[in-house]
Structures are given as C-alpha cells and as structure tokens.
Amino acid sequence: MQYRLAVLPGDGIGREVTSAALTVLKKIESLFSFSTEVEEADIGGAAIDRFGHPLPQRTVEICQASDAVLLGAVGGPKWDNLPGDLRPEAGLLGLRKTLQVFANLRPIRVFPELMDASPLKREVVEGSHFIIVRELTGGLYFGEPKERRQTANGLEVVDTLHYTEDEIERIVRVAFDLATKRRGHLTSVDKANVLESSRVWREVVQRVALDYPQVQVHHQLVDSAAMMMVQKPTFFDVVVTENLFGDILSDEAAVITGSLGMLPSASLSSRGPGLYEPVHGSAPDIAGQNRANPLATLLSLSMLLEHSFSQHEAASVLEKSVLSVISQGYRTADLAGRHHQALSTTEMTERVLAALEDQVGCQTMKSAQ
Ligand SMILES: NC(=O)C1=CN([C@@H]2O[C@H](COP(=O)(O)OP(=O)(O)OC[C@H]3O[C@@H](n4cnc5c(N)ncnc54)[C@H](O)[C@@H]3O)[C@@H](O)[C@H]2O)C=CC1
Ligand SMILES: CC(C)CC(=O)C(=O)O
Ligand SMILES: [Mg+2]
C-alpha cells in the first residue's frame, strides 16, 4: 500500500516535532509494510519568509493531492506585527477552511503515570477520558465582517460569530455519533444566556438529539464548563462546541493531562484529506533547543494512521508505544519535574522507536504461540 502525505512543519517547535514524526513514520512503514510518499511544504512564518504569504498556492495543491496532512505549528514573535490576514495563523486558518476540515477531534486522556504531573489533585484527574469536538471552519474565527474601522470617534473593531444551521448540524452529528461509541454522554457547550448564535446552536442540538435517544445530552454554559473541566473532568465524555470555545477549553484540558505537549488532534472533512496537528503552538520560548515534547505530534500521527490511512494496527501500536515510554518513566522537560531526567526531543523519539520494535516483537511472539 502506498500513501501520499503532505508535511507542513511550520514554525518554532513545529519543525522539531514533525521531524520526530517523520522518523517514527519511517520505522512504522518498515514494521507494517506500507510506504508513504512524503512531500514537505511551507506554511505560516516559514512561508511568509520564503514566499511573502502564509499559505502559498503550492502548499494548498500539495495538501489537496495528499491522503493526509501532518502539520507542526505556526507563528512566532517575528511575525506578530503583520496585518491579521498576513500573519502565520491566517495561513493555518486558510488551510483548515480550504480543506473544509470542520470536525476537530481533541482527545483528552490521563495517562496513569502522569497523574501526578498535573497541578490538579490525583483524585480529580483520575479516570478522566473525554474528547472535545471543536467546530473548526466557522464561528468567531471566520465570520465576516472582521475588521478595524477608522471613525470620527476613533478606531472601532469588529469580529463576527457566524454560523449556518447546516454548519452547526454537521458538527453536532459528528459528536453524537462519537458519543454512541463511547459512554453515550454529550455535553454541548455554549453561551446561550447571551449569544443568539448559541441559542440556535442549542436548538440544533435538541433537534438532532431526537435521532439519538440513547445519548444523554447536557447543555453547559462555557464559563461554568471551563470551571467544571478542572473541578470534575471525569464528568465529561464528548464535548461539542464552537470554534473559539473549543480552542480555549482544549488548552485548559491539557492541564488535566500534565502538559500541552501530550494533546493530539485530528481535523476531518466529509471528503478529502484529514489534517493532523498537535494542539499546542510553536512554543517560541523553547524553539530550536531540542526540548519540545514530540508525543502530541506522535499521537496525532497515530490518529492519522487510523483515520486517513486505515492502518489500524499501526495506529494502535504507535499509541501503545507512547504509553509504554511514559510508563517506563521517560519524560521531556515539560513533564520531568524533580523525579525524572529530562530527555531531549530526539532522545524521546529514540525511546518511541525502541518501544515500537518491542511492541511489534511482542505481537509477533503472541501470534506465534
Ligand atoms: N496550531 C498552531 O499552529 C498554533 C499556533 N499558536 C501560535 O504559537 C505561538 C506561541 O503561542 P503560545 O500561546 O505561547 O502557545 P504554545 O502552545 O506555543 O505554548 C504554550 C506553552 O506551552 C509550552 N509547550 C507547548 N508545546 C509544547 C511541547 N510540545 N513541549 C513542551 N512544551 C510545550 C510552551 O513552551 C509554552 O510555555 C503564537 O504565535 C501562537 O499564535 C498557538 C496555538 C496553536
Ligand atoms: C493558532 C490558531 C489559528 C489556532 C489555535 O490556537 C488552535 O487551533 O488551537
Ligand atoms: Mg489553540
């Protein structure tokens, strides 16, 4: 089997973590007998520096011609003063919109060995395992108008939260479908006490719920949901929400897992390539130091193998290998604390490569018995 993969390293630690993922992918290909034609392309600040635009047409074409896209992260202080539509982040938003990857899945899982890495109490985080389903191509990040205006009374500014009913319904259905395969519990997060868009969101959830009588639905306002997420994270199973709310809540949820460096994501469309990226950004504070935790990107690669390549066994073995390095006590600096030695990005990647060999070796032995 041969797949086509577009790799967009982007900026900052994006380059380091995608490089780790490519090393791991090569190993997986040899262990599971498939091959991938990888094409790298620029996005974000790197693309601005080379081509004067955060999302060059060539990058879009390479992504569209691929089975999947793996992205590192974009942004950094060097480009922070550019106009909004020419910033690195605009490149990423443009790519998500062009690929129509409206369903952003962000699984939040507590690894037992990392329970004490969270600043939250062990008894609060223990057993947390939920997934945030974030609407990714609409809402406040995309609505028009979105502009600054000079008026007689000074500067005024507008961002717009816009949704069609269809856009809400398609993401809500993704969330209901997921809930049927999990604990059957859906929390829809909105701000229906203030926003008209949230009131329509709630109506759509209530209407779609009629098709899923086996799913228990809970509506939660975003402010109290933010509190509940760190107070009682085990309450949540599937969380569905608007673009900006999902962005904020998922970084908050990272606290439960111990580090933003552990959170993967998959962004899926109805057809066309999926986009896989860690939840974190380009981390300028540690960029270029070989200190970044590559595990969020490796878990995103596992989601890619599952959803876009249908290499289910490889996906599962990669996930188990990540679990295994953590349970063997290997940690990058974000998780090392006082009790562990901090491994570099490349050292952690080598541990995952070794764990992959071990996992596949164990499976071969089991099937030979
Ligand atoms: N998807 C993307 O490309 C995203 C890009 N950004 C961009 O990234 C830049 C920095 O944004 P921040 O708010 O600082 O968020 P960030 O996610 O880059 O970093 C937040 C904190 O988490 C740490 N961190 C993040 N990933 C880590 C990893 N893998 N291993 C170890 N530590 C890690 C960083 O060192 C930093 O202290 C900005 O330009 C922002 O726009 C932010 C979020 C997402
Ligand atoms: C940089 C932004 C475009 C997005 C972001 O923070 C995210 O998707 O998590
Ligand atoms: Mg974010």
TrEMBL record:
The keyword Zinc does not apply. One of its GO terms (cellular component) is cytosol. Its EC number is 1.1.1.85. It comes from the Bacteria. Its cofactor is Mg(2+); Mn(2+). Binds 1 Mg(2+) or Mn(2+) ion per subunit. Homodimer. This is 3-isopropylmalate dehydrogenase. It comes from Alicyclobacillus tolerans.
